[in-house]
Amino acid sequence: MTRALFAADALLPTGWAKNVLLAWNAAGQLVEARAGADKPAAAETAGGPVIPGMPNLHSHAFQRAFAGLTEHRAEQQDSFWSWRTLMYRFAARLGPRQMEDIATWLYAEMLEAGYTSVCEFQYVHHDADGKPYADDATLSRALLRAAHKTGIGFTLLPVLYQTSGFGGLPPNEGQRRFIRSTDSMLRLLEALKPACDAQGARLGLAPHSLRAVPPEALREALAGLDAIEAGAPVHIHIAEQTKEVDDCIAWSGQRPVAWLLEHAPVDARWCLVHATHMDADEYRRGARSGAVAGLCPTTEANLGDGLFDFAAWRQHGGAWGLGSDSHACVDAAEELLMLEYGQRLRTRQRNVGATAAQPHVATALTLQAVQGGAQAAGRAIGGLAAGQQADFVVLDAQQLALQGLSAPDMLSAHVFASHRTRAIDAVWVAGRPRVAAGRHALHAEAASAFVAARTQLLQD
């Protein structure tokens, strides 16, 4: 059985088009995305312009529960590293039910904010004492359940974490819930694969960082991953902080991205999360490797990471996508705004994200972020085209900031002028409505459970 939606305006991979018919099959896959169409009698009509759903390529779900709780001076000079200490304290208290409740609310929030899929970089594996649960996959299964309940598309990336610094430094007390041997990680992947397959989720691997995974473990884990699921996504934190760059040079004589490119088979299946601090050669070689740069603008701003050289990456044809990471902000449009504004401040120019093909910044950035996010997720979610999943967002044409505008300007207003109120009416994932009139069906229930989980964690 085929379902269809008719849109007066829709953002196709080639740009904006008029009178677009979107049709999808029972599996939620688009079989048609045709411009200049007549409206079939049986097709629904979109209430506003239709844009592709945004993949969220980097998430630590549990961190949503302490967003806003670290915005006070804890040290003489606060940084990522002092924030990390507070994060470890919070992670130490987390239980499976709290993980599921926090993630359920977060994923409902994401859907309401225009994200239709998420890559979950999952590194809390064990109980509070650092011992494996009876079911070693307990916390990963909690995340799978949250994704299933909300209907968000899912890529699960269990994290390999072994050391606290370059050169094999032993893990510290705050990392005890994260630590796994390589063999243990591969057994976890084997245990999770049937559940992911049954849910239509994608399974991959996240070596946490070069400081947390020694070279031999990285090689063994990648070989083991290929034996379980060849071509699966590989995500890694890299070059987020200048201290990390300095420590990597002291250890190896090379910068992190340069070391990775020379010692690992980096290609289009890889996502280099942050990659903020690269030199010109790393930008050139990293972009040409085919890897996706995983940019998380609001988290990178919140943590004081620094600014990615967007122009240098795109100059070499680099793919990129967006993640909400620590979830200080959960809003696809605001990530686009922060990315563009950061580059404007960096270059002292306007409309940095525009391209020759797409002069509207919001249009150009949306299309590129969807393509890069789909690649990083390892799923067919790359936009409104036949063969891709029917993931899309209907903008609210009645929202004041959008009224009376053309479709490209509506998207621009949604990103740059909606004053932190979302101009989203409906969100569909795999051809199924998940958000209507701006609200997810689980909004109230999930919000209540989230507040209860956070309250309990703060009281323990």
Give an overview in words.
By secondary structure, the protein is α/β, with parallel strands linked by helices. The chain has two domains: 3-51 and 385-444, Urease, subunit C, domain 1 (Roll); 54-377, Metal-dependent hydrolases (TIM Barrel, Alpha-Beta Barrel), CATH 3.20.20.140. The chain has helices at residues 80-91, 96-112, 138-150, 182-199, 215-228, 242-252, 256-263, 280-288, 297-302, 310-315, 332-347, 361-377, 407-416, 443-459, and strands at residues 3-12, 15-24, 30-34, 44-45, 50-52, 54-59, 115-122, 153-160, 202-203, 206-207, 234-238, 270-274, 292-295, 319-322, 392-395, 424-429, 432-436, 439-440. The strands form four sheets. A five-stranded antiparallel beta sheet has the order 5-15-16-17-18. A hairpin with a 2-residue loop joins strand 16 and strand 17. Helix 2 (96-112) runs parallel beside helix 3. It is globular, with a radius of gyration of 21 Å. The chain starts with a strand and ends with a helix. The model has no long low-confidence stretch (mean pLDDT 95).
Question: Which tags fit this structure?
Answer:
TIM Barrel, alpha/beta, Urease, subunit C, domain 1, 5-stranded parallel β-sheet, 2 domains, 460 residues
